[in-house]
Amino acid sequence: MAKGLSFKVTGLQPLGVALAGMREDMQKKAVRQAVTAGARVIVLAARRNAPVKSGKLKKSIESLRDKVNSRPGFEVRAVSVFKVFGVYANTRENVRKGRAGKKYLMDPPTFYWKFNELGTVKQPARPFIEPALSENLQKVTDAMKAKLEERIFQRAKVRP
Fold it and tell me: 78 φ, ψ to 5°?
């Protein structure tokens, strides 16, 4: 199983005070957008670090919100290679079964990403997602702070 990385942004007390003065729904939206901005930095870095053969692996690195573990004041996003949607072909059998043109989840064509990221018995690990966070931690924090400032002060229509 892949190991997860987590970090906590601290030292933003003035933004925290301004955020606390907002309505709860606006707080959630601001925090969600800030975490999304930080995850975007990681996604772009992971795409730069990913090994290239066909380019499919780079395209399949994404960030998704974890709705189960996210709650007010605590937003969770995962950066990884996720399952992709396939579309049933318009064949006689699919039409008969009523599924022609409908979507379904399937393993990505880049299933091998985990072998590169984690290694195997015969291949050493060549991670590209984990270093994307550890090497860009300041950029992630800056992106999150900038997005929080934008949302908070856009709402207040004032700059500090």
Answer: -115, 140
Looking at the DSSP bridge assignments, the partners of residue 78 are 64
- Give the closest residue to 144 by CA, choosing from 16, 47, 48, 2: 16
pTM higher than 0.90 for the full model?
no
Tokens 């050493």, residue?
124
User: Domain map of the chain by residue range?
Assistant: 13-156
The C-alpha angle 59, 60, 66, rounded to 5 degrees, equals: 135
Residue type for 138, please? Q
How far apart are the C-alpha atoms of 129 and 80, rounded to whole Å?
A: 7
The conformation of residue 80, written as its DSSP 8-state character, comes to E
The total of other beta-carbon atoms located within 10 Å of residue 63's CB is 18
Instruction: Write down the residue that tokens 């990681």 correspond to.
Output: 42
d(CA 10, CA 93): 57
Task: Determine which helix (DSSP H) or strand (DSSP E) holds 95, and give its type and residue range.
Answer: helix 92-96
How far, in whole angstroms, is CA 84 from its chain's centroid? 15
- Which pLDDT does position 2 carry in this prediction? 45
**Higher-confidence position of 26 and 128:** 128
Structure tokens at 147: 């997005």
